[in-house]
Write a structure and sequence with these properties.
The chain is α+β, with helices and mostly antiparallel strands. It has a single domain, classed as Yope Regulator, Chain: A (2-Layer Sandwich), CATH 3.30.1460. It has four helices and eight strands, in the order H-E-H-E-E-E-E-E-H-E-E-H.
Length: 170
């Protein structure tokens, strides 16, 4: 279902495998650099199998969107200086007739890491649930997103099932 599913397996393998030394080219961010370059995040997500948009900018916000099988989500960039950012936020939005404030409240009460909020539909339309996951970036480059992205993919799929967007998996 999710094309980036191999990312979760890679995260587990990365934890188990010893680190290998590799030379760092001048165009690659070094471990001493704070933050992650937006373009490096785009390239990394594309390499992992997502269909990633160009960089979007509007009203002081910067983001990219990712199409990943049936799921579309976004990565918002914060605390940026010259397109190197110290914080990111994963976000996705779901709309359908089964989404209610109670469903979103139950998610927030019972689950950790992803926060969600509810917006009622206008003029009797379907409700919308937005789910977000914030990441503080440390030194070390874009590979530090491996575990965060794997967690995001697992939990956003579970959230999609909880709000009736995806069929529940058992």
């Amino acid at each position: 279902m999710i094309r980036l599913a191999t990312l979760a397996a890679a995260a587990v393998m990365a934890i188990a495998a010893p680190a290998a030394a590799a030379p760092v080219s001048a165009s690659v961010q070094t471990a001493a650099d704070p933050g992650v370059p937006i373009e490096a995040v785009r390239a990394w997500l594309t390499e992992k199998g997502g269909t990633v948009s160009e960089i979007n900018r509007r009203d002081g916000e910067t983001w990219i969107t990712v199409q990943d099988g049936p799921l579309n989500w976004a990565v918002f960039f914060y605390s940026c200086e010259a397109d190197v950012c110290g914080d990111i936020q994963y976000a996705a939005s779901f709309s359908n007739a089964t989404i209610t404030q109670a469903v979103v409240n139950d998610w927030n009460r019972d689950r950790r890491f992803l926060k969600a909020f509810y917006a009622p539909g206008e003029s009797g339309g379907d409700g919308t649930a937005v789910v977000q996951y914030d990441v503080l970036i440390h030194e070390g480059g874009v590979d530090q997103l491996t575990d965060h992205t794997a967690l995001w993919l697992e939990l956003v799929s579970a959230f999609g099932a909880a709000v009736g967007y995806f069929a529940p998996t058992e």
